[in-house]
Amino acid sequence: MVSTLLLWMTALCAATNSFAQPVLEPTRIPPEWIKPQQPFRIAGNLYYVGTYDLSSYLITTPAGHILVNTGLAVSEQTIKKNIKALGFRFKDIKILLTMQAHFDHMGAMAAIQQKTGARFMVDAGDVSVSETGGKTDYETGGLVSQYSPVKVNRILHDKDTISLGDMQLVMLHHPGHTIGSCSFIFEVKDDNRRYKVLLANMPTIITNRKLSAVKGYPDMAKDYAYTLDTMPKIQFDLWLAAHASQFSLHQKRKDGDAYNPAAFADRTDYDKQLANLKAAYLKKLAEEQP
């Protein structure tokens, strides 16, 4: 995922030397970001409605629904189709959230907001990036927008609660990948039990520059350190991430499998991935030493 973003950013910089467009979503993207994925029930009233690799989550309530992440601009129809296939109404989406303000999670956000009237809520660190369609992103700042700008209806801060119907989600500020990267933790229940679910924003390093050289994000190294220290301490029953590949969705579940929340209860996988990400971060710091 990181190498894909870096390749695209290089291409985007070259493209903008010759012309500019209001929105320039990348054309060289992994096929699994667009490939359809059969929607399914994860646990309780939590459902997967995204593409094969770009995770979008639907949380249903009697008062309407919450959608977390929208994938690419072309993902809008996939998400709409998936929601309908599960027996829910697209227009009942009331709240829109994102785990990071990059084009691969925000591409369809403005269109879905316009068509549903849903309120978009975002971590304070990603407000500017969301409102400019990625134009003020620290890695591509000053370039053309990467997706349609999104109207922010509520600014979120660490441990703020998002409420709708009988659901309460707590936003956890996990900066580094973007200034406003965040995770969400909440409870769902089925006929057997309650589950504490973490939608984890895994802190992959996006920049190919020295962290200290990223002038648009001077606290990047400090933020990564905070996130990598905080995330291993979170207690949960089930976990998922912004990309299906980050939580091995297609190894844990195949299309047609029966309802099985326990498939997403692998704490060992979570801890191992965070340990690998911390090792990559420490290596990055070491390479920056004179």
From TrEMBL:
Q: Does the keyword rRNA-binding apply?
A: no
Task: Give the SMART domains listed for this entry.
Answer: Lactamase_B
Q: Enumerate the UniProt keywords alphabetically.
A: Signal
Q: Which InterPro entries match?
A: Metallo-B-lactamas, NDM-1-like, RibonucZ/Hydroxyglut_hydro
Where in this chain does the record put each Metallo-beta-lactamase domain? 53-243
**What range does the record give for the signal peptide?**
1-20
From what superkingdom does this record's organism come? Bacteria
Q: Which NCBIfam families does the entry mention?
A: bla_class_B_core (NF012229), bla_subclass_B3 (NF033105)
Extract the PANTHER family matched here: METALLO-BETA-LACTAMASE DOMAIN-CONTAINING, METALLO-BETA-LACTAMASE DOMAIN-CONTAINING PROTEIN
Can you say what this protein is called? Subclass B3 metallo-beta-lactamase
